[in-house]
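question for whoever is on the cluster today: can someone run the full assembly for these? four chains, 1976 residues total. i dont have access anymore since they changed the login thing
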Amino acid sequence: MQEPRRFPLASPFESPDGDKLREECGLFGIYGAGDAANFVALGLHALQHRGQEAGGIVTHDESRGFNVVKKLGYVRDNFTSAETMEQLPGRSGIGHVRYSTTGSKGHTTLRDVQPFHGDLAVGGVAIAHNGNLTNALQIKRELIERGSLFHTTSDTEAVLHLMARSFHRTIPERLKDALRRVEGAFSFLALTSDGLIGVRDPLGVRPLVLGRIGDAWILASETCALDIVGAEFIRDVLPGEMVTIDDTGLRSTMPFEPQRPRFCIFEHVYFSRPDSVIGGASVYESRRRIGVELAREAPVEADLVCAVPDSGTPAAIGYSQESGIPFAMGIIRNQYVGRTFIEPTEQIRNMGVRLKLNVNRAIIRGKRVVLVDDSVVRGTTSMKIKDMILDAGAREVHFRIASPPTAWPCFYGVDTPDKDKLLASSMSEEEMRDHIGVDSLRFVSLDGLYRAVGEETGRDPERPQYCDACFSGEYPVQPSDMIEMGRISLKAAE
Amino acid sequence: MQEPRRFPLASPFESPDGDKLREECGLFGIYGAGDAANFVALGLHALQHRGQEAGGIVTHDESRGFNVVKKLGYVRDNFTSAETMEQLPGRSGIGHVRYSTTGSKGHTTLRDVQPFHGDLAVGGVAIAHNGNLTNALQIKRELIERGSLFHTTSDTEAVLHLMARSFHRTIPERLKDALRRVEGAFSFLALTSDGLIGVRDPLGVRPLVLGRIGDAWILASETCALDIVGAEFIRDVLPGEMVTIDDTGLRSTMPFEPQRPRFCIFEHVYFSRPDSVIGGASVYESRRRIGVELAREAPVEADLVCAVPDSGTPAAIGYSQESGIPFAMGIIRNQYVGRTFIEPTEQIRNMGVRLKLNVNRAIIRGKRVVLVDDSVVRGTTSMKIKDMILDAGAREVHFRIASPPTAWPCFYGVDTPDKDKLLASSMSEEEMRDHIGVDSLRFVSLDGLYRAVGEETGRDPERPQYCDACFSGEYPVQPSDMIEMGRISLKAAE
Amino acid sequence: MQEPRRFPLASPFESPDGDKLREECGLFGIYGAGDAANFVALGLHALQHRGQEAGGIVTHDESRGFNVVKKLGYVRDNFTSAETMEQLPGRSGIGHVRYSTTGSKGHTTLRDVQPFHGDLAVGGVAIAHNGNLTNALQIKRELIERGSLFHTTSDTEAVLHLMARSFHRTIPERLKDALRRVEGAFSFLALTSDGLIGVRDPLGVRPLVLGRIGDAWILASETCALDIVGAEFIRDVLPGEMVTIDDTGLRSTMPFEPQRPRFCIFEHVYFSRPDSVIGGASVYESRRRIGVELAREAPVEADLVCAVPDSGTPAAIGYSQESGIPFAMGIIRNQYVGRTFIEPTEQIRNMGVRLKLNVNRAIIRGKRVVLVDDSVVRGTTSMKIKDMILDAGAREVHFRIASPPTAWPCFYGVDTPDKDKLLASSMSEEEMRDHIGVDSLRFVSLDGLYRAVGEETGRDPERPQYCDACFSGEYPVQPSDMIEMGRISLKAAE
Amino acid sequence: MQEPRRFPLASPFESPDGDKLREECGLFGIYGAGDAANFVALGLHALQHRGQEAGGIVTHDESRGFNVVKKLGYVRDNFTSAETMEQLPGRSGIGHVRYSTTGSKGHTTLRDVQPFHGDLAVGGVAIAHNGNLTNALQIKRELIERGSLFHTTSDTEAVLHLMARSFHRTIPERLKDALRRVEGAFSFLALTSDGLIGVRDPLGVRPLVLGRIGDAWILASETCALDIVGAEFIRDVLPGEMVTIDDTGLRSTMPFEPQRPRFCIFEHVYFSRPDSVIGGASVYESRRRIGVELAREAPVEADLVCAVPDSGTPAAIGYSQESGIPFAMGIIRNQYVGRTFIEPTEQIRNMGVRLKLNVNRAIIRGKRVVLVDDSVVRGTTSMKIKDMILDAGAREVHFRIASPPTAWPCFYGVDTPDKDKLLASSMSEEEMRDHIGVDSLRFVSLDGLYRAVGEETGRDPERPQYCDACFSGEYPVQPSDMIEMGRISLKAAE
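^ ran it for u. tokens below:
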């Protein structure tokens, strides 16, 4: 099916050239509220940083059944008109924003946009998913062999087919049945004609929180989506937990074999919004404390502490507070960033960064500047920013990075470049410093990061408290499809 | 002519409910560069904060003559496609972004979008204008009486008609002739088949700067528009100066009777971008110093200094630095703001502010908070933010405002509400504090503001160094049309 | 999934208020031509009269695999841009235009637009269908029970699922397997990675012809689609025949039990284009001969013979030629018909017919007029036209209808109103004459119709040569789903 | 101003490759009816054949003043939505459809779309124009010299500027004043705040008729526009007459020096709709009689008379009736014509004609065919149609043309190619026959044409009753601008 071509706007949270790891989905579901679709739209709007390419909402209404609207682009542009929202009646609904994990990467088409809806023999269901199933290809191959017709390129559809073929007679049981067949990291929402279901994988890699407003229950990826609708935060859905909500209330079951949780530590570093609370901790405060740890681990004499906006700001504030070096807005973001401008002449080409960021020349000139950024992926952005800062007359540039070196790809629902594109996979800290060309470059240590997120004794190397595979190469779930395709050789195998 | 209905996106620089004064135009012109239109588009993009409703570009090409493209909406959406830019060939061009001053207010139509182009007996010309002509209605009436046909509702068109009827034989002379007939505050750009002209009114109320890149000259409203294209800042165009640029170079003339300059002080407070330099001073630094002045004039015991993002941030940093109270991101902006969501239920209605701003509840709870904002216009935003902060559990809320009370409307190209809508026109500081309902509310003094922008001895009451009519009610140019229409009674007349 | 709302334009072939039976699909496939998609688009354009709501094209390209574009609206608007056609590379392709038979009637959504594509364990396939499966609901129910997920509301998808679950190892065998399970009237096209397949149901109710251009083979609903691309007409695909085309050439098999053919006689009356040739006979000539038969069976004294344009014209010419009464363009069509105009006042309301048709008042006034139309369905159009003609001053109006009374609904891929909406189901010819209010009303006899299409001895009542269920109530295939749903009581049962 | 690119649909009335003279405007105005805009839209829809590129409507409403909507494309697409029509309140209105005469030919932009509205010192006015002013460039030059700013490239705007500068105090007087300054052929409508005005030039070259519905008056280009709204035809506006309609009724004045009328004879041949009545004569009947004349002047032995649809049909019927040779639909139009399809391969290229026309092969094969067309302009279409007919197996092809050879361009509001592109300007009838390659080619004589339109003794060579400059080269009004530009050498000058 052909969709109008849309160039997804770059995320204002991301750095200028997309040189970031990207969380790839946000979820929001509600049960028991009039105008459920409006709540879902607002919640997805608050979660837009988790996926900007497309969004979808499914509601259920007693008289009209399931209603589906999917669109490429931003929630604010797609789910605000009366015309659209009237197509989504009902007291319950789920929604999804996505970048793209599996599926046609970088080229989202409407049919790959979640939630997916299907009519099973036991009734209709819509499902939406944040994460990645690491054995989806194997399951899909088997299902096609048996006569299932796939309509998308998404791994999520395999779960719907498994549910369609399950012998159980209720949708929650069929969902459990299906999820016990898959591996990977996932938070799932399912909407039925009389209920709402939320599930987290046994390790709890991806987040999912529970909220309440009036008599309605909400499930969302982050607490900031509760705040926007004025809902009360109740608790995190637990790793391995399935919550089932219907008119009789909320029930909790634990369908999987128990495992030690391994929440994604990068949610603290970059993915989540700074006004969200994860596992009882303020994301903003965690990031500020990473800055404090950095200032202790890697102090430097300087005149100003500046952030690479906006994601580096909390750590920059922490660094300034711990070091006593004044914080200043040395780099200003243009708030009207959008798709790339045409750049037909040599003169204009390669100025991409200035479209989004501008150095505050008047206050940088002649200064020794500490620049705090959240992470280094390919290193391309760091080099451009260094150039801008030096071009503006800075005397010294000291990069401080609020995460350890990112040396391994993620297979759990995060868009990462191939391993050989990750700067830290082949260079030491010193080599990266020379490559980027700055006076100093320091990353926070893995232990420092663990301390900042509240593990006072740092990382437990025997039983790490988080999933930190992107830093450590220790993958808590085997990436089966990738191994089969020969796309990855694991550390363990080296 | 009918245009497709477009809902202009709210400016991310503005506070949530539009409770701000609004600068209403941005200008950019270039002479002597290949692909002039690309430079203009980039420059307008950097000036988007000065006008978000619409934008237009006119270029001149030897073989194709004048080329015009005007569109409603953002530069990034309208002037980036190859299809559009190919319609704008040429080595010289001017562009304009606008909100709306005169003309069909709040309902911009394409025909009111500048630049305006016309064929005079002495050749073609395109003009664009930042400011407001205070006697435009009188002139327009007279021109119609003599048989001129107006095609827009803009005051700028009157200048074009005056030029069409001038007896002078060159366009620069006709422009001088026309501008000597008008009153008000203005910076004008004019593009001819062989040159580019820039003019500032005798008081220099509105800004205009001169830059250079390679062999090309640039005229722009702010220096940030020079930065984005990598141009060098040369100097401000002087109050009352006309610069004429052609293949022979740049000439400067002073066509008006000399007056003492009265630059708009609100450009420092809010309109200009923090990375621009005005009159040799960094806007960011001026704002930070306002925060320092505020901390001196209005200290308070508190736990945190927070900004109402984003315009209050520099002053909040200054307040924190001067007071020693830690700065924190207590309010987080949603980067994906857009047009208003539908809010059909009582439950959702009135939550407008949360769409754009969210309180960082985890760090605000139980704290005494100093909230720094740039200005108070109607006071509606201040009340909503106060509610949000208290709702998040703040113990005390102390508002500190980085400008004096705004008590008078502007007639020089800034969108202000009627006088009786301005909170400060009828209330004292204490009354405003009680009305808004905060523990304390303090504005920086007019002298403090003057000190922050570099006038060390403060305001000279006899010969004020700036136009500060919005604070003082002292209007340097008589708003003739408004008086004739009975829309304003001046302080002098009281 | 949400599609932009489109109001399908009314067919210029249909009479003003849609008071016609409507053929519901057109098919075109080609194998072995560069730019296959362009041929398909042209062929579908020529078949647009068979379906105006939507169209789809699927091509197969060796390097890019299957390519799918589907759109609501006309072929001329949707499949002409370079941008679209570049998305459809390949040397083979099939296309479909549809009104809507089953599926969401009157509310076509993109996901219901054919061709449908699926990946089977034995390879990819796309299918398109003209006709209607009379036991589709029963099959769909069974498939869902076994775990198939349906993504459309179309009966055609059931065939794809049957193919997905077939145990045969080639797509042609799986298609045969599936089609042996279904009942109804159908012509099917299937595109595989290395071939093109065409099938007609055993009765041959719906048409399908074979053509050739250069080395490429074409399958299309009508010969006019061969003419438009300059292809040579080879022969009709036979009732019950499957033709399989690949690089080795064309093979023919007869997978079904043989039956006596029962081609749809209404294709001659109205559905097919007058420049098509069916079963060796010119459609135009058949229609002209119906007029001749009518003039013999129902002569009348009159001054002019006029057609209800455009479908009544050939029969009107025949009537004129046989009767000697001059033919004249008494009713003129507006060539720019489109969607309905707003008609907010009593004055304007109910003038719908005049938007499309206007009486040529100057030549009608005072005349006795024979008005020839192709059929009477609800009778609403006939009444409006009679009013127009009398209003223009005609002295007498004699309706002559080029088909027998339409008294029974069709279940074989034609959109008909419910039986009780058919005027002829409850009225005699005389009652209809009085109801419509004309001086005389006569239908051609069923035998006359058979003679006109070449059966010289008329209809064989024991073994009718055509499907004429809409006139006779004798249904050659049991409409099982309809009977199960209680939506129809058959003549046999009366 | 930039407009979205639109490819104007080809007119279904025109022959396949645009090889026709084109009437360039249609007018409709109404005074005194609620929902005036709906009447105007319907009337313009009926006049769409007079201009397909764009349309505009201006209404006047007491409370909202003048309302303007202009769009590129068809009336049916642009003036039917409630959203649009609500922008056009009022009890009076005028509208215009245009192809393009002067102005940016072939590239209509919105600002050139009429009606044009302006605020004069004596009140607002909107004007619309069918025809062409032959001295517009001279007047425009003079107006610019005096300081008028032109906003369009249309000759009509000059009239508005002349009105703006007139010393008269009423709009009707100013319109007379302006029209006395211009030369050419024109029918004008003007809408004021309290009236509607219609004027025809002294020769009455272009049509304008007066109608009445209820208490409302209508002015329109043709009677078919009265029929569509159910209005009564009152009379033709007379050559040189100005009718002024307001709440006191209708007044008629004759502002110009009287001249003998010279109505455009081509309106009978092709421009007007066959259901319109011109000067008391049915257009259909005139065309049928041209066929009768042709059969008398140029008989031939043949089997069938066919029309080049649709404009040749009435003459073909006349030819058949006079000659006794049967009329048949030998060429069928595709009703879904639209913009050109992509034709990337040699195979598909040059098949343009078949997209719109298809030969009814089954009835043409082996026949001697008389083909009746309305005119020959460049001859390109005639050659393509001849090819199609021969390709279908016709034994002989005899072209009969229902107008004399078109040898001279029109300067009175009709789009004609340059003289050297007109086949008849350089070839005799025999040469054209050989060039086109048919068995015979005959044009009706100029006298025959005059007889068919009711001049029983044919053309009066001393005082021709019609403007027939395109056939005779005798121009009743001097084309001054063309002569000045050296674009034309007149017959008189030869």
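summary bc i know u wont read the tokens: The CA atoms of residues 125 and 192 of chain D lie 5 Å apart. Chain D touches chain C through 73 residues (CB under 8 Å).
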